[in-house]
Design goal:
This protein is an alpha/beta fold. The chain has one domain: Rossmann fold (3-Layer(aba) Sandwich). 37% of the residues lie in helices and 22% in strands. It has nine helices and ten strands. The strands form three sheets. The chain has a six-stranded parallel beta sheet, with helices on both faces. The chain has a two-stranded antiparallel ribbon with strand order 1-2. Helix 4 packs parallel to helix 9 and helix 7 packs parallel to helix 8. It is globular and about 50 Å long. The protein starts with a strand and ends with a helix. The structure holds tricarbonodiimidic diamide.
Amino acid sequence: MKTINVEAKPYEYQFKTDETALVIIDMQRDFCAAGGFGEKLGNDISPTREIIKPLQKVLAAARDNEMLVIHTREGHRPDLSDCPPSKLKRSRRQGAGIGDEGPMGRILIRGEYGHDIVDELQPAEGEPVIDKPGKGAFYKTDLGLILQNKAIKNLIVAGVTTHVCVQTTIREANDRGYDCLLLEDCSAAFDPQDHEDSIRMIHQQGAIFGWTTESQNLLAAINEEVK
Ligand code: TIU
């Protein structure tokens, strides 16, 4: 176990490696590959692809330091019985209906190629994968139970999209008593303004929802401790 101090906004973030989980939100092909949900909604997916490389480095460091790594995926059952009709209706209105056929299979449906995590960030054996029907990773999932059983107190959060599933999860976690650190360059929104706004919303008012930092600060702090 190591205690790590990371330069962050609005002030230093401290965590113990055995009490901290790296939570990677929805790095699915549907959000990060051509033809997926994100692109069908009319978005430029390059921001969600750019974070893959820095996220790979953080993932490697977390694994090297025996931290809990958790992956999430947004999606639904093939019969859509767990998809709120309101969500389905709005996705269809946007021209990217959940369950519609796309180049990577049915959009946001569990078991389809597009629903799975990109090759570069595939979960390692034993790393929990949380399938979630909502934007927040706690809603109707066993994430809270897993974190409780492993005595986790801190969450380092990354993934897509910053203003939707990442921020919703950080807000849920904050209300449940977790100290969250958002990795700015390992999260992305399709519109950079949404990304920047989310970062400010999280760390404002003395870390109202949590802390934010660049991954190089986290990696430097881990390496400093290892020396
Ligand atoms: N994972 C996630 O953020 N789901 C979304 O629907 N994001 C959008 O930006 N639409």
